[in-house]
Target: Molecular chaperone IbpA
Amino acid sequence: MSTLDFSPLFRSMIGFDRLANALETAYRTESGGYPPYNVELIDDNRYRITLAVAGFTEADLSIEAKENLLTVTGQRQVAESEGNFLYRGIANRAFERRFQLADYVKVEEAHLENGLLHIDLVREVPEAMKPRRIEIRAAAAAPAIEHAAVKAAA
Model:
């Protein structure tokens, strides 16, 4: 497996350290893993993460959003008398899945339905950060000159 060198980005991108770190982390992270998940774009400012967590209850799952990191953990409460299995193909293991969130992306809600954990996210950009249109006014130099001429005549 070849590796990419992101050090030129660190030299030329001032103030974008998190972006370069995110690229490097994304490249190093292998796809797959447990549990499988989808990331869906609902509209321009809404997203949904869906994790397949069959066998987990609400009490077994934990969702934490801290700064720009969303962490989903699952720890099943194992009963001592679960049975005597001849074959166990259904995963019964703990997991931790992390998602790097962009600035201003917040968790709106989460719900568990039919073995799927849905986490709805929304991007709420503050008014001060949104683009705004600047009005261009005409120069007001002509009236100021006329005003000066009127004073001189008086």
Q: What stands out?
A: Residues 141-153 form the longest helix (13 residues). The chain has a mean pLDDT of 79.
